[in-house]
Amino acid sequence: MKAKLSDVILYVRDVDNLKKFYANHFGFQVIEEDSVWALLDAGNSSIGLHRMGDQYLQQSDSDHPSDNNTKIVFEIDQDIRTARAEMISRGIKMKEIKTFESYDFWLCDGRDPEGNVFQLKSRKTNSSDDAPY
């Protein structure tokens, strides 16, 4: 079997808030939505935002992002320093830029308003192979 990523679905507290976050900061278009669901066009795949069930909403504390084991990675065609600075200027929490030996990309993690981790990934070029900070 050969597979390709079609969608990533996040179960969230506030569909509308995260829909606006990903549309405003990543330029994703909403392709489907209703009161408990939004589907965003993220290029070669889609991001689905599904409202958590009431039983989980009551257990969740929206003021404290929970740890999770999901990270959405967005490859960008912009300098990672510039992209990170833009995100920070918009009030988005971003970690430091990093890379790995023999890896062709710069990486920088951030969190959306509900604490879901996303990563910006920018290809190294010959002129910027040195540390970008």
Write the layout of secondary structure elements.
Elements (H helix, E strand, L loop, with lengths): L6 E6 L2 H12 L2 E6 L2 E5 L4 E6 L2 H6 L11 E6 L3 H10 L15 E7 L5 E7 L10
Parallel strand pairs: 1-4, 5-7
Antiparallel strand pairs: 2-3, 3-4, 6-7
* DSSP helix fraction: 10-25%
Taken from the alpha-carbon principal axes, the silhouette is globular
The main sheet comes to: 4 strands, mixed
Proportion of residues in extended strands: 25-35%
Written overview of the protein:
It is a single chain. By secondary structure, this protein is an alpha/beta fold. It folds into two domains: 1-58, 2,3-Dihydroxybiphenyl 1,2-Dioxygenase, domain 1, CATH 3.10.180; 67-133, 2,3-Dihydroxybiphenyl 1,2-Dioxygenase, domain 1, CATH 3.10.180.10. It is built from three helices and seven strands, in the order βαβββαβαββ. The protein has helices at 15-26, 54-59, 80-89; strands at 7-12, 29-34, 37-41, 46-51, 71-76, 105-111, 117-123. It has a four-stranded mixed β-sheet with strand order 1-4-3-2, covered by helices on one side. A three-stranded mixed β-sheet has the order 5-7-6, with helices on one face. A hairpin with a 2-residue loop joins β2 and β3 (37-41). The longest helix is centred in the N-terminal third of the chain and has 12 residues, at 15-26. The model has no long low-confidence stretch (mean pLDDT 86).
